[in-house]
Each structure stands twice: as structure tokens, then as C-alpha cells.
Design a protein that fits this description.
The structure is a single chain. The chain is mainly α. The protein has a single domain (15-454), classed as Amino acid/polyamine transporter I (Up-down Bundle), CATH 1.20.1740. Helices cover 73% and strands 1% of the residues. It has helices at residues 17-28, 30-33, 40-72, 79-87, 89-121, 127-144, 146-171, 177-180, 191-203, 222-252, 254-259, 263-272, 277-284, 287-310, 329-345, 348-376, 391-404, 406-410, 412-431, 442-467; strands at residues 3-5, 8-10. A two-stranded antiparallel ribbon has the order 1-2. The longest helix has 33 residues, at 40-72.
């Protein structure tokens, strides 16, 4: 049952390593079904493969770093709490805004993908209607409770994984090598710029695995289970990303894949025909992968919004808890309406650029947090330590900085829009949010204790020197 800590309601602890692995893979798996293919026109297969491997390295190294952070700072704030502890309130807030931007916008992107797959089967069903139904359904599931959601997610993820494995089994023997490596030698149409512009779309194959630390307050043994969930999930996604891109492009070619709103059914249909049984299965049951990610994204944005609002950075109404279920229902519902509006107003390839920009801001600050806290607070208890430190977080940091400017090449307008969002958020922070901080929020209380301890050490140092 939930309990109270001061005036802060503590979320229910119900998650085990298998739940974390399931949620981690589930929230990302739609990237295999939809989105990654929008970067192919300039990159080609080889360029996309290079971009995918670079992003895999970035995510794998970051995953190792946030595994360390999550065992030290096991709070729902996740990325915000890491940056808050390492670099203060403003950077913590900006990190949280990056995370909120990432997930609130990722939800409509996936909803549009769901609409594309439904249209493959039922052309008369509008995308907006399908999206609205999905939002209503899974907002309801998340309000009911985390354990109930995790059970449903486990079923969805295993079905989605099974379908991907089936596609690999059927598709690998039928790959046309000329689709992967054109005979005219134009392996990467856009050259270096093509690889760079593909980075935000390659990110879509891994984007959101880093949300797991936001479930720390709901994990039974966060010290042991969170690193297991993060690392096993990332390894699974790495294998899937290489196989999915290779099989899909190898079957259909770049021209088909670049414009496909439902790339996996389109790939199978290109090779075997629209009526081929696997194309129909992927178009129908393949929705499960998108639905698994969609439901996970709602979980992610609700936890970050909840953490920021209970700490005072966002309006307190967003921290309201359901009296019976002890779930942050307002943090689930209100961002959902924003996402549904985005479904109507924007194209998914443009929204992906804003979502990945927000994500990369948080990646940069999280990697910096690993480095800063090792230097600033070496005595913090770390039940998991980042392997090959400091090489690991530095590699992830450098790749994140490179990737954040990739959207400049992909779409300059949306690069500026992304910067403008953070500029507005900064103005909001300095004018209003910084005066509303709730010192009793777990992340704020823990950060304040760290500041007090640090000041005590500085004060006591001259006294100790005199005694010696």
C-alpha cells in the first residue's frame, strides 16, 4: 500500500526485474515498427546502419551511467533528480522539461503510427479516431495501477517480440543484397551529412529505455533490479535494431521504406504481396508493438510530470493522486489531451525531431551528472558502478552532443522550434517556478541534505586543520 512521507505520497512498490525489462523493451519496441525509416532517403541502408550503431553505443554507455545514478538517487524524478543533485535546480528543471517534451510528443508520434497500421487494414478509420481511442484506453489503464499495467505490458511485449522474430525468420532468406548495397555504388546518398541527418531517426530504435529510473520508487529492490532491467533491455534492443533495419530494407528497398507509414507490413508486402499472410499479421497483430510503446510512453511522461509538479516546478494540480488507486491521474490525463492535439496538427517525421531534441538535452545532463557526482560526492553509496569510468559517460556525452545538432540538418525550422521551447521554459522557471519549490519533495530534500553536508565539510575543514 502507499504511504505518506511528510505530505508526499509514496508510489506503490510492485516492480521486479522482469517487469522492468518488459517495460523498457516495451516502451521502445514501436521504434522497430514505425519511425526509423524516415531517415533513409539521405542515408541509405549503410548510412542508417552506421547511425544506428553510433546511437546504440550512445544508449549503451548512457544506460551503464544511469544504472549507477538510479541506485544512488532512486526517485520518480529520474533524470530531473540526477541533474538536480549534480548541477542545481535550474539544470534539473531543464532536464525535466527535456524529458517531458520527449515523452509527451512521442505519444502522438506513436499514435499516428497506430493509425497508419489501422488504415492498412481499415482504410475508412481516421487516424485521429484511432489515436483518441488509444489515449482513452491507456490513460484508464494507468490510472488503475502500475502492477495492472505491467501485467498487460508483458503480454503485449512478448507478442510484439514474437512477431519480429517471425519476420526475421521469413525475411532473412529472401533479402535482396542490391537493396542494401546498390550496384551503382551510391551506398550513402547524402554522404556524411546523410548519416548525421539519420541520427534522430536511428535514435527512435532506442529512445525511451532511459525512462526506467523514473520507476525507482515503484521497484521492489531498486539497488539490484534497476541495473538488471536497464542493461538487459538495452542489449535486447541492440539486437532487434540491426535485424529489423536489415531485413526490412533488404526486402523492400530504400524507395519503399522511405515513404512507408507501416514499414514492416510494407516490407513483407513488397517481397511477397499485400495478401501474403505475414503482411496481414504484421499489419494487424503488429499493432501490439506500437500499443506496447504507446502505453509505456504515457507511463513515462506521467511520472516525470508528477515528480516535477510535486516538487513545485509545474502546477501542483498535476501531482494529484487518485484516492483509491494512488496513481497520478492528472499527470496522466492533461498531457494526454496535449498529445491528442498534436496528432491533429503535425506530421510524425517533424514531431520526432522535437522529441529526440528534448531527449538529447536530458542525455547530456545525465552523462554530466555521472561525471560531476563522482567528483563532487565520491562517498555516495553506489551499489552499481559504471564500467570503464570515465570513458563510458564521456563517450555517451560526446555522441549526444553530436546528435543534438543532427536535427539542424534534418529540419532547421524544427531545430529552432526546439530551442524556442527551452527558451520559454527558462523564462517560466526564472519568473515563476523557482519561487514555488516544495522543499519536502524527495528529490529536493535529498539535494538539500547534500548541500548542507557539503557546506559542513567546508566549514569544518579549517577547524580540523587547526587541530592538526
Amino acid at each position: 500500500m502507499s504511504s505518506k512521507k511528510g505530505e508526499i505520497i509514496v508510489l506503490k512498490k510492485a516492480l521486479t526485474p522482469i517487469h522492468l525489462w518488459t517495460i523498457g523493451v516495451g516502451i521502445v519496441i514501436s521504434g522497430n515498427y514505425f519511425g526509423w525509416n524516415f531517415g533513409l532517403s539521405q542515408s541509405g541502408y549503410l548510412g542508417m546502419l552506421i547511425a544506428t550503431l553510433f546511437m546504440a553505443i550512445m544508449y549503451l554507455t548512457m544506460t551503464l551511467g544511469i544504472s549507477e545514478l538510479s541506485t544512488m538517487l532512486p526517485y520518480a524524478g529520474g533524470p530531473y533528480s540526477f541533474a538536480r543533485r549534480a548541477m542545481g535546480r535550474y539544470i534539473g528543471f531543464i532536464t525535466g522539461i527535456g524529458v517531458v517534451l520527449q515523452y509527451v510528443i512521442a505519444a502522438p508520434i506513436i499514435a499516428i503510427g497506430i493509425g497508419g497500421y489501422i488504415s492498412f487494414l481499415f482504410p475508412s478509420v481516421p487516424t485521429v479516431v484511432a489515436a483518441a481511442f488509444m489515449y482513452a484506453l491507456f490513460m484508464g489503464v494507468h490510472i488503475i495501477g502500475i502492477k495492472e499495467y505491467a501485467t498487460i505490458e508483458m503480454v503485449l511485449v512478448f507478442i510484439a517480440l514474437g512477431l519480429l522474430v517471425l519476420m526475421y525468420f521469413v525475411g532473412l532468406p529472401q533479402i535482396n543484397v542490391a537493396h542494401l548495397f546498390p550496384e551503382n555504388g551510391d551506398l550513402i546518398p547524402g554522404g556524411f551529412k546523410g548519416v548525421w541527418s539519420a541520427l534522430p531517426y536511428a535514435m527512435w530504435l532506442f529512445l525511451a529505455i532511459e525512462m526506467l529510473p523514473m520507476l525507482s520508487e515503484e521497484t521492489r529492490d531498486v539497488q539490484k533490479d534497476m541495473p538488471k532491467g536497464l542493461i538487459s533491455g538495452m542489449i535486447t534492443l541492440l539486437v532487434l535494431s540491426v535485424l529489423t533495419t536489415t531485413v526490412a530494407i533488404g526486402l523492400a528497398g530504400i524507395d519503399v521504406m522511405t515513404v512507408a507509414e507501416d514499414p514492416l507490413p510494407a516490407a513483407i508486402a513488397a517481397a511477397f504481396g499485400n495478401t501474403y499472410w505475414l503482411a496481414q499479421i504484421l499489419a494487424s497483430v503488429g499493432l501490439v508493438g506500437l500499443i506496447a510503446s504507446f502505453s509505456g510512453v504515457i507511463l513515462a511522461y506521467s511520472r516525470q510530470v508528477y515528480a516535477l509538479s510535486r516538487a513545485g516546478y509545474l502546477p501542483s494540480i498535476l501531482a494529484k493522486m487518485h484516492k483509491k488507486r494512488q496513481t497520478p491521474y492528472m499527470a496522466i490525463i492533461l498531457p494526454g489531451f496535449i498529445g491528442l492535439a498534436l496528432v491533429i496538427l503535425f506530421n510524425p517525421d517533424d514531431l520526432i525531431l522535437i522529441s529526440t531534441f528534448g531527449a538529447l538535452v536530458s542525455y547530456i545532463t545525465m552523462n554530466l551528472s555521472v561525471l560531476i557526482l563522482r567528483k563532487k560526492e565520491p562517498n555516495l553509496v553506489r551499489t552499481f558502478k559504471t564500467p570503464l569510468y570515465p570513458f563510458t559517460p564521456i563517450v555517451s556525452l560526446v555522441l549526444a552532443v553530436i546528435a543534438i545538432f543532427a536535427s539542424f540538418f534534418a529540419n532547421f525550422t524544427f531545430f529552432i522550434v526546439s530551442l524556442a521551447v527551452f527558451a520559454v521554459a527558462s523564462i517560466y522557471y526564472w519568473i515563476w517556478a523557482r519561487h514555488q519549490i516544495n522543499e519536502d519533495a524527495p528529490e529536493e530534500r535529498f539535494a538539500k541534505e547534500a548541500t548542507t553536508s557539503h557546506e559542513s565539510q567546508i566549514t569544518s575543514a579549517p577547524i580540523e586543520a587547526i587541530r592538526e
